[in-house]
Fold this protein.
Amino acid sequence: MTPEVKERIDSLVQGSKVMVFMKGNKLMPQCGFSNNVVQILNALGVPYETFDVLEDYEIRQGIKEYSNWPTIPQVYINGEFIGGSDILIELYQKGELQQMVEVALAS
């Protein structure tokens, strides 16, 4: 990953309390896993931003290296990598995701 791509990803991750790198966007997810993440965040009723990796190959590849996580979607809360669809589902079911997001939004 080039320093420029890393800088762009840093800026995106730091620019929003809840950031999702996904296929498509929150209005039109382009895969089932991305849709799961959108549905969970919508159910929590929290503000979040998305980045469509299908529109930017450098970010699509770079984000995998950035997080050391091979799949999309990727969720960041308060600049910290949380995980993908399966991890978000698990955190949501345990009630932990709500807490994480509330802490992030309060900071």
User: Anything to note?
Assistant: Residues 32-44 form the longest helix (13 residues). The helical segments are 3-14, 32-44, 57-67, 85-94, 96-106. The longest strand covers residues 18-22.
